[in-house]
């Protein structure tokens, strides 16, 4: 399949995990890429790796903090200046933040997590939708979480931000369907990326691998998800095949959110 021939796909959080996996999937199917992340070294590594796996791929990278509105305008402008359009947007960058009961959850931590995971997604939507509306087409996938559709515990900032992403997705899906723009969210469960490894290390130190096994024993499929499985879902939602799916929040979690 070559679902992204001549398409430009913009991805935030492109230096790692789910962003990297989605980038590979759409690049294999012909997309040109604009990858955005705070971590420029990570972006350069991912760019090299993608160029070795997909030799004719065209990639630009933009170092930016998605919680900064001006930086968001800049990454959107740079993408349009270089490629002339944005067909797909994976609005994905996020952090988990420190885990704590609500009474012990730091207010600064709460603001930081919401700033990145929710305000960052809002800024991305605001400036990319402006471009897509003028084009008369586009598709957007926001990254929510299982923690955005049910209570997980110890994650006030994360839960608030990801429930907010679900709200933004439904609201903007209703607004922009008339412009031939589909906007959906994915709600991943535990997918083995740097973020999950970091969180297990925070909980269990050197015993993080055993803690991980115990954690996923509660999942109906008894395993972590793989980043490439999320990459396939994102590619489908960004493709024309999914054009009539709009305002939806799609879990990818082995069934965890239905237990
Ligand atoms: P990851 O840590 O591997 O990748 C996240 C990327 O986002 C990193 O490259 C990081 O540098 C970047 N980033 C963080 N803050 C940023 C900022 N302010 N500006 C720009 N870039 C920033 O983690 P991941 O698992 O790939 O997470 C991607 C998204 O998926 C996040 O929104 C996360 O909340 C969500 N998610 C992940 C899981 C999971 O199990 N891995 C589950 C549910 C939701």
TrEMBL record:
<protein>
    <submittedName>
        <fullName>SDR family NAD(P)-dependent oxidoreductase</fullName>
    </submittedName>
</protein>
<dbReference type="InterPro" id="IPR002347">
    <property type="entry name" value="SDR_fam"/>
</dbReference>
<comment type="similarity">
    <text>Belongs to the short-chain dehydrogenases/reductases (SDR) family.</text>
</comment>
<dbReference type="Pfam" id="PF13561">
    <property type="entry name" value="adh_short_C2"/>
</dbReference>
<dbReference type="InterPro" id="IPR036291">
    <property type="entry name" value="NAD(P)-bd_dom_sf"/>
</dbReference>
<keyword id="KW-0560">Oxidoreductase</keyword>
